[in-house]
Design goal:
299 residues, alpha/beta, Rossmann fold, two-stranded parallel sheet, 12 strands, 41% helix
């Protein structure tokens, strides 16, 4: 079997990769921190050479957007220096690498959906660190694919969907911003797409290299996303709350968010990696969290 080194295995996308990878013929390597420490980039090359994988999938990141404003050095070590070091080691080993990036490399001022060639202009530390990680990986000379994604959620860890369901247990109404637009993305779908890129890179497919956008099909705002969560929850006998639509100005955060996070996925679809509507992705996640509607409501 192909030895795939997976970083960030305990995160949302990493956990889905753990579940999906064996069926794709991957023997996963999930090194401990002592075996591969992404916070010590100077050691990554030596550590990766010792592990000797056939491919690398980097799902690890410092994703606490607000916390990054107060911990910029750590954010840059993990999000910028580590991908560069992984890419340099992958190049020396002659193995391909797939790296997960973010919509936060954009400032959100574009009217339509962002394509891969649009200029980047991150608003905060998190976005700047991820943008530098992209640049470092591309400069490393590795045969690599970068996957920018947005609004990731899953049945695991902390995320928007789970937060809405938790808040609805004790609140009748929840204020959610309605002036930030994007495309929600299931971690399971993102993991499947990322593993598909690994497979294509291993087969020598030239079109699988470079930057790609991957997110659920269709647009919504955070408030619309929350309303869909509660509609789906109600169908499954889960918690329900009213959504009070508010502007971003009523929900200040340490880090600025892009008002437009919509990612155009045409490029990745053109190489045969499909994108499901975000509502369908959400339904699959809610089925896992709450059970299918037919079971919980008797429909």
């Amino acid at each position: 079997m192909t030895r795939l080194l997976l970083t960030g295995a305990s995160g949302q996308t990493g956990r889905e990769c753990l579940r999906l990878a064996p069926a794709r013929g991957f023997d996963l390597l999930t090194p401990s921190r002592s075996e591969l420490d992404l916070e010590v980039p100077d050691l990554i090359g030596e550590q990766l050479m010792r592990l000797a994988p056939d491919a690398v999938l980097n799902c690890a990141a410092f994703t606490a957007v607000d916390a990054a404003e107060g911990e910029p050095e750590r954010a840059f070590r993990i999000n910028a220096d580590a991908p560069r070091a992984l890419g340099e080691a992958a190049r020396r080993l002659g193995v391909p690498m797939v790296h997960i990036s973010t919509d936060y490399v954009f400032d959100g001022t574009k009217t339509g959906a962002y394509v891969e060639t649009d200029p980047i202009a991150p608003l905060g530390v998190y976005g700047r660190s991820k943008a530098e990680g992209e640049a470092g990986l591309l400069a490393s000379g590795a045969r690599a694919a970068i996957v920018r994604t947005s609004w990731v959620y899953s049945p695991h860890r902390s995320n928007f969907v789970k937060t809405m369901l938790r808040l609805a247990e004790t609140r009748e109404e929840i204020g959610v911003v309605d002036d930030q637009w994007g495309r929600p993305t299931s971690a399971a779908d993102l993991a499947d797409a990322s593993l598909g890129l690994v497979t294509r890179l291993l087969s020598g497919e030239d079109l699988a290299s470079g930057i790609f956008h991957y997110a659920g099909a269709g647009d919504t705002c955070w408030a619309g996303f929350a309303e869909a969560v509660f509609e789906g929850s109600a169908q499954r006998g889960g918690p329900l709350a009213r959504v009070r639509r508010i502007p971003t100005s009523e929900y200040p955060t340490p880090a600025r968010r892009p008002a437009n996070s919509r990612l155009d996925t045409s490029k990745i679809e053109a190489i045969g990696i499909g994108v499901r509507p975000w509502g369908d992705q959400l339904a699959t996640c809610l089925d896992e969290l709450l059970g299918p509607p037919s079971i919980r409501t008797g429909i």
